[in-house]
Amino acid sequence: MRWLLVLPILNAVTVYYSEAVTYVFRDTGGLGRKFDGIGGLSGGGATSKLLANYPEEQRNQILDFLFKPNFGASLQILKVEIGGDAQSTDGTEASHMHNSWDENYQRGYEWWLMVEAKKRNPDIKLYGLPWGFPGWIAAAPQDPYVDPQQTATYIVKWVQGAKMHYNLTIDFLGIWNEKPYNDTYIKTLRKTLDANNLRNVRIIAADDNENGWAIAEDVLKDSDLAAAVDYIGAHYPGTVTSLKALETEKQLWSSEDYSTFNNETGGGCWARILNQNYVNGGMTSTISWNLIASYYEGLPWYRAGLMTAAEPWSGNYAVDSPIWVTAHTTQFTDIGWYYLRHGYGVGHLEHGGSYVSLITLDKKEFTIVIETMSHDHSECVRPPLQPYNVSASQTVTIQLEGSVEAITEFEVWYTKLSFDPEVKDVIFQKRQPLKVTNSQATLSVGVDEVWTLTTVKTGNKGSYPPPPKPKAFPLPYHDDFEGYEVSMEPHNLAQQLGSFEVVAEDNNKFLRQMVLTQPLMWCRNSAEHMLNKSFNIIGDYSWENVSIRVDVRLSPVNGTKGVFLGARVNQGGCVSYDTTGVFFFVFPDDNFYILSQDLMRSQVVSTGPINCRKGWNTFELRLWSTGMFGFVNGQEVMAARAPSLSSSGFLALGTDTYGLADFDNLLLKKSPIL
Ligand SMILES: *[C@@H]1O[C@H](CO)[C@@H](O)[C@H](O)[C@H]1NC(C)=O
Ligand SMILES: *[C@@H]1O[C@H](CO)[C@@H](O)[C@H](O)[C@H]1NC(C)=O
Ligand SMILES: *[C@@H]1O[C@H](CO)[C@@H](O)[C@H](O)[C@H]1NC(C)=O
Ligand SMILES: *[C@@H]1O[C@H](CO)[C@@H](O)[C@H](O)[C@H]1NC(C)=O
Ligand SMILES: *[C@@H]1O[C@H](CO)[C@@H](O)[C@H](O)[C@H]1NC(C)=O
Ligand SMILES: *[C@@H]1O[C@H](CO)[C@@H](O)[C@H](O)[C@H]1NC(C)=O
Ligand SMILES: *[C@@H]1O[C@H](CO)[C@@H](O)[C@H](O)[C@H]1NC(C)=O
Fold it and tell me: How many A from CA of 614 to the centre of ligand 6?
């Protein structure tokens, strides 16, 4: 029998289990699985959008907190979206092939991010996965497997482009994010990689969410498929796997996990799954969605990243607790270490929480990570199993056997997350070494704590001076697009549908909407509502009385017929089809406008004539209280008084259908513009 002691200390009451429980750590008699690393996911989609245009100083600091070894999160894997021109959660990422005749490796920011990660850690592993696909990939709509060879070639070109243009080696490829896999396609992808001398690119399948381990059954039945699939990756597995998945003897990954607000709740969730994905599910890698919350507040899943950097105009950012929770594992392990066996260094603590331990193959370095997150505080989006709850402190005796028996001292790193606003967190604190006597050490472990006990001496809590103070998005805001390299996405314009990039012509740079046909959508609801519109937001979701002005030209070749300016735009993401606000659609060739209260143009307020020139015209939308005013080349053509469906939101621009359209000299201002 164990008893509970209740000691009143000041006003608080501390409950702890008096009796120490002994846990054996032994490497003899076999090891557990090989450790494959902890990662972060940029994309799925556009989650790093605002990071690229941070001031250089802060941008380098942020990248250090994410990737630099022995500094911050020290991530071991970077997973990125292979852009597909389709909305993939917080925006659209550009495809390297908008069309079958087009190939371009300068678009977006994932290339840049991978280069920066590799600069800091040459050993970081890179993993690419598509969400949507450009329309030409799906001859019959919404299926990338109609022509498996064409899709495999498209993906392999992305891998080759990474090498050719950036000297980046892609280590892992996935199939189709959270969508059905197709055996023929997986085998075709393997063959196409091999045929292109890319045998070292490993395939992870199938990044499924609802029924993550289902592919294991096919792998067990089909030896060709088994040969093509290197790793089984499931999303949000809730720390558990399936018997079939274990039977495959493949390495199992939680290839996307977390998705939790990055305050203490997120840090606690992350601590639990990093340990328990192995303890309960034998998973040897866990990847956080997302890497960094660099997308506007007001878009879905705000701050569901390991840290936050969504203010490039101020340079403000926050290194949130999940960064340091990651460090508890990553700074004291490497890919290729081995977990000890369950019961001999891996398991649940008697009074709640869990522990894992990892060792190098040469047995020279050894690390133990203990977490005691309470369920009440640290809930994840898909809660891990709850066989043990933590409600009290407990005394843990560590007994070392086998080659770790000779260890005499551990370095100690400690975190305690406080869920009381009056009590500060203790974050990744280096403590006095823990002495090991006669191969035994004893530790008192409280609630909501993470402990790393390790022989590794290079741990370090990296730091920089505090970043600049937060600021509102600066107005007026002007962009003539002259400052960008061709093909880049402009700063702060967060594309939600379609793909916009800088084009140069006759010594002028401007912004072009590039997508010609409906992509193969990732969002289920967008597929149902084939909007056919492009849609790009900018600014602040709380704006009311603002105006947007821009020069526009329709392309005579493959052009769209109409463009729009939007204000008080209430949302983006997968619900873009349902977006409300004030939308001033103009049709320059046909000389009319439509004022609508929604992006779909189903809530029309008014229509009327306009008078446009050939080529470039200037359009403007001004909002003032209940007034909405539209201008063409400086002339007021529309004035309406109506309460709008949304009272505040982003500014926006876009096209009425897919097709080329050009935008230049964007100007955002507080209304009225005098
Ligand atoms: C996979 O794709 C191929 C080629 O399009 C098709 O013939 C096959 O039916 C698909 N398999 C499944 C299970 O959908
Ligand atoms: C490309 O990267 C490899 C490491 O992956 C490095 O050894 C090589 O020097 C690099 N090549 C160039 C041209 O930078
Ligand atoms: C653990 O706590 C959760 C929520 O607090 C509760 O639902 C669950 O039943 C508890 N489990 C055990 C084994 O006590
Ligand atoms: C963290 O944020 C979430 C979502 O806003 C909230 O539900 C939770 O209570 C917060 N946790 C703490 C510890 O503040
Ligand atoms: C969008 O375009 C597709 C073909 O690309 C067409 O089938 C669909 O009807 C269009 N939807 C709308 C709302 O115009
Ligand atoms: C327009 O589309 C056609 C195919 O429909 C293509 O051959 C041509 O290159 C496109 N031109 C531009 C400028 O996109
Ligand atoms: C917008 O303008 C109206 C009318 O003048 C005013 O009542 C409201 O406070 C303004 N909103 C903001 C955020 O300035």
Answer: 21
Beta-strand pair 366-371/354-359: antiparallel
Whether the bond between 467 and the residue before it is cis, its omega within 30 degrees of 0, is: no
Instruction: Return the closest-CA partner of residue 173 out of 189, 187, 161, 160.
Output: 189
* Relative orientation angle of helices 183-195 and 148-166, to the nearest 10 degrees: 40
Cα–Cα separations (whole angstroms), residue 174 to 190, 351, 463, 535: 11, 39, 35, 28
Q: How far apart are CA 94 and CA 113, in angstroms?
A: 14
Atom number, ligand 3, closest to the C-alpha of residue 389: 1
Q: Is 517 in the pocket of ligand 5 (CB under 6 A)?
A: yes
Q: At 370, list the tokens.
A: 């203990």
Distance CA 74, CA 66 (A): 6
> Which of 261, 378, 427 gets mutated to test ligand 4 (max ligand atoms within 8 A of its CB)?
261
150 close to ligand 1 (CB < 6 Angstrom): no
Q: Which atom of ligand 6 is nearest to the CA of 555?
A: 13
**Closest by Cα among 81, 16, 76, 21 to 47:** 81
Domains detected in the chain: 15-30+342-454 (2.60.40.1180), 37-337 (3.20.20.80), 477-670 (2.60.120.560)
Left (φ > 0), alpha (ψ -120 to 50) or beta: where does 214 sit?
alpha
SS (H, E, C) 561-594: CCEEEEEEECCCHHHHHHCEEEEEEEECCCCEEE
Cis peptide before 206 (omega within 30 of 0): yes
Catalytic annotation on 365? no
Q: Is the pTM of this model over 0.90?
A: yes
CA distance 370 to 350: 12
> Which of 93, 110, 116, 256 is flagged as catalytic?
256
Residue ranges of alpha helices (H) inside 485-634 are 524-528
Half-sphere exposure in the Cβ direction for 29 (13 Å, CA): 11
608 C-alpha to center of ligand 6: Å? 32
Tell me the ligand closest to 670's alpha carbon.
7
Q: At 418, give phi and psi (nearest 5°).
A: -100, 135
Instruction: Give the pLDDT means over successive 10-residue stretches in the chain (674 positions).
Output: 38 63 97 99 98 98 99 99 98 98 98 98 98 89 92 98 98 98 98 98 96 97 98 97 98 98 97 97 98 98 98 98 99 98 97 97 98 90 79 96 98 96 97 98 97 98 98 98 98 98 98 96 80 96 97 96 98 95 98 97 96 97 94 97 87 98 98 62
